[in-house]
Design a protein that fits this description.
By secondary structure, the chain is mostly helical. It has 2 domains: 1-37; 43-157, Four Helix Bundle (Hemerythrin (Met), subunit A) (Up-down Bundle). The protein has 7 helices and no strands. It has helices at 2-36, 43-46, 52-58, 61-73, 75-97, 103-133, 137-157. Helix 3 (52-58) crosses helix 7, helix 4 (61-73) crosses helix 6 and helix 5 packs antiparallel against helix 6. It is extended and about 70 Å long.
């Protein structure tokens, strides 16, 4: 009888440990997910960026939600362009390792990639224009000042390396 109690106690402890481990992993996943999603201190990671990333992370939260909503609505187009970018990268890889190496093939692969980058950028810019068009004069001024401040702070935190 004592042996049965000990075995059931061990089984119960194993189950408790598995559940505890699962909960700990879930919490770690949530924390990492929150950090990667852009919540929290945006300037630390994105203010040094240029281009669309800088525009996105300077937006107030409600306008950033609009950008996300836009891309959810246009998900099929975004995914198609992402697939095309992956294919373009594969073509670039093949061109780089080809024997004999053909510079014209690599130029062509880069040109194809550039088309996809341009298309993607144009789509994102359409979303930004639509969202920024709905902002008031004051909101647009605050938005630009936020971008400038984030960039200034990022430069302060990440000074350029001095040339020897």
């Amino acid at each position: 009888m004592t042996e049965k109690k000990t075995n059931s106690k061990r089984s119960w402890m194993k189950a408790l440990l598995v559940v505890s481990l699962g909960l700990n992993l879930a919490v770690v996943g949530l924390v990492i997910g929150a950090k990667l999603s852009g919540h929290g201190d945006r300037r630390a990671h994105f203010a040094g960026a240029t281009g669309l990333r800088m525009f996105m992370h300077a937006l107030p939260d409600d306008h950033r939600r609009e950008v996300r909503r836009y891309f959810r609505v246009h998900r099929t187009q975004v995914h198609a362009n992402g697939d095309a970018m992956r294919e373009a990268m594969q073509t670039i890889h093949v061109a780089i390792i080809a024997r004999p190496f053909n510079p014209d093939a690599l130029h062509a692969a880069f040109a194809a990639q550039r088309v996809h980058i341009t298309t993607s950028t144009q789509d994102a810019q359409k979303a930004f224009v639509a969202i920024i068009s709905r902002m008031t004069d004051v909101q647009r001024t605050v938005y630009v000042n936020t971008m400038k401040e984030q960039r200034r702070q990022w430069r302060k935190d990440h000074p350029r390396k001095q040339k020897p």
